[in-house]
Amino acid sequence: MRSQLTIFLVAMGIASAGISSAALAQAWPQRPVTVIVPFAAGGNTDGIARMTAQRLGAAFGKPFIVENRPGASGAIAAELSKRAAPDGYTLFVAALPVMAIVPAMSKVRYDPQKDFAPISNIATNSFALVVNKDIPVKTLPEFVDYVRAHNGELSYGSAGIGSLNHLSMVLFLKRAGLEMVHVSYKGNAPALTDVMAGHVMAMFSNLSDALAQANGGTVRMLAISSEARSPLAPNVPTVSESGYPNFNVLTWNGLMAPAGTPQDIIDKVAREVGAAVKDPKFASQLADYGVDPLGNTPAEYKAMLAKDIPVWTEALDAAGVKQEDDAK
């Protein structure tokens, strides 16, 4: 009898846990949801997070409150989000560098693939290979020939060692078998300014910054780093279609939740993000930040992250950037 009672109580406990989990997901949200952003207010990630939070709040009838937690290149926010209760009341706006680059450069207390449940990648941002307007090249093949003729003598700029545009150029040069001298700046803008002035020949610039200067005639855009052409620059070919297939590097901002968050909640939020990016008004707001709407499914986002991590690990290895033991 005692054995049968034990089995009955265990079975009831499992059933109750299942009902509680289902009920939680069905009733969610009953209170405000915190949306953690890994950078300070005012940047692209913050702006995208606030747009998305406003949309989700309107859709679900509860406030989605953005909380900026900058520091340690985003690791502080990631660790905080990882430790949050997996109940749907804490979401994390993950940026590609935080998930695919920072863990390869520093010892961090989170696993990008095990500690988070991907929800939906909101938008992507590709890079544009730009050259000074006086450089006699108009296509990517011409750029390759020009650099090869001056191998190791020409310089390129970036936003700093380990930055996305630094690693994008390192990866391209490796695949093209070229050598250039890296000049590091404190941000994309000063690097692009020196390309315009002719102090460095080229760089992979944020597309939004590159577009403004290319339209003004101060730089020439040769190729886009993403797999497909950007709607923001449909006439500019991709690196992939210009002779280097499978070259696909871009950055992104997407929603994640702590691992173990009920799948029903994950799916609800993902569906709403997917609907938002199809809204012309929302898509137009994203375009103002120079990003391309995506809004993929949780499974697609998970696969995207798994594919991106080895790409940026390869780039870091090619750049000679080693992991430092400096966990915060």
TL;DR of this structure?
The protein is α/β, with parallel strands linked by helices and 328 residues long.
- What is the CATH class name of the largest domain? Alpha Beta
The CATH topology of the largest domain, please?
A: D-Maltodextrin-Binding Protein, domain 2
Q: What is the rounded distance between the termini?
A: 55 Å
The CATH homologous superfamily name of the largest domain equals Bordetella uptake gene, domain 1
CATH architecture of the largest domain: 3-Layer(aba) Sandwich
Poorly predicted sequence stretches spanning 5 or more consecutive residues: none
Alpha-carbon Rg, integer: 22 Å
Order of helices and strands: HEHEHEHEHEHEHEHEEHHEH
Helix/strand/pairing category: alpha/beta
- Report the total helices: 11
Largest sheet: 8 strands, mixed
The fraction of residues in strands falls at 15-25%
Please tell me about this protein's structure.
It is a single chain. Helices cover 46% and strands 19% of the residues. By secondary structure, it is of the alpha/beta class. It has two domains: 31-125 and 250-319, D-Maltodextrin-Binding Protein, domain 2; 126-242, Periplasmic binding protein-like II (D-Maltodextrin-Binding Protein, domain 2), CATH 3.40.190. Strands 1, 2, 3, 4, 7, 8, 9 and 10 form an eight-stranded mixed sheet that branches. Strands 5-6 form a two-stranded parallel ribbon. Helix 4 crosses helix 11. It holds the Pfam family TctC. Belongs to the UPF0065 (bug) family. This is Tripartite-type tricarboxylate transporter, receptor component TctC.
